[in-house]
């Protein structure tokens, strides 16, 4: 029963991580780097912006997926 619950959580996490990654912007600087727009307020405070939050959630979900994959691979469950 525990294995089924963990598998469902694993699938939901995988779908959520896919959506989070697709929501992120590309890392190319584009034309904003020419004019120095990369050093704007949002560039300096990236950790507080939505892009910073998406990166944080990506890291957390990647770690959770890795741990759940290891736990589901154990023969004990």
Automatic annotation (TrEMBL):
Keyword set, alphabetical order: Cell membrane, Membrane, Protein transport, Translocation, Transmembrane, Transmembrane helix, Transport
One BP term from GO: protein transport by the Sec complex
TM region positions: 57-74
A GO molecular-function descriptor: protein-transporting ATPase activity
Pfam families in the cross-refs: SecG
Entry coiled-coil feature ranges: none
InterPro entries the record matches: SecG (IPR004692)
Membrane disposition: Multi-pass membrane protein
Location of this chain's protein in the cell: Cell membrane
GO cellular component: plasma membrane
Role: Involved in protein export. Participates in an early event of protein translocation.
Family: Belongs to the SecG family.
Name this protein carries in UniProt: Protein-export membrane protein SecG
Source species taxonomy: Bacteria, Bacillati, Bacillota, Clostridia, Lachnospirales
Gene this protein is translated from: secG
